[in-house]
Amino acid sequence: MPELSTVRRYEAAGFRAWPASSVIYDGTWAIRLTAGLPAKRLNSVNPLDPADSLNIGERIERAARRFDAYGRPVTFRISPLAGGTLSLHLDREGWVSFADSIVMHCPLDRLPLEGVLDQIPLKDVGRFVGSALEVHGTKPAHRPGLSELIGSIEPETGLFVMEAEGKPVATAICVHDGDLAGLFEVATASAVRGGGHGRRIVLAALKWARLRGAREAWLQVEADNDPATSLYRSIGFSEAYRYHYRRRAGT
Asked: Which Gene3D superfamilies match (predicted)?
């Protein structure tokens, strides 16, 4: 079982690095909603205290009404901070679990950054977003939402794009927040996977963050993404804790 102080540290960093457009608190449940992007992290209820277990049914219904207003099914993000009482309630009500994910971390002084080429992050958010959508194969309709999200990140942010033959082949966002460096939107174009582009862009982004004073890297990855988890482990990352999502059956 991970130390809850460690979980709280990364959860808080994640909220700062990947901010939802609307955040409302019901007790210690952070209800995050973002109209412009459907990402689960940006549209979920995030319980932040295992002891906060009063009136669960009523609070779920209040949250569901907020999600309905956004046209989304109410979704819980269950980290170790959620506690057992809430999970048991969701089990009894038949909520399904999905998207098991791993939070990984690594001290930057252990990473093989010697010899990594310095890469200057992009200043042009529009160019980065266009490249990220192409690499991810994401719908162009998400462009305004992703642009708005990146523009709302308050900690220092590096936008990295790697190109080959004039086309983007890998992207990454590195958020430098005090002594932490968080990685987001790491992706390699499907046609060139296995060519080392992901490793190079991750190491370039983390070298940039270390030069600015970051001492520890962290990221989130879906547990069934074997190529990504293998890459991160080979670089030096290890598991800190896991989380998953819960929805009502049939939604």
From this structure: 3.40.630.30
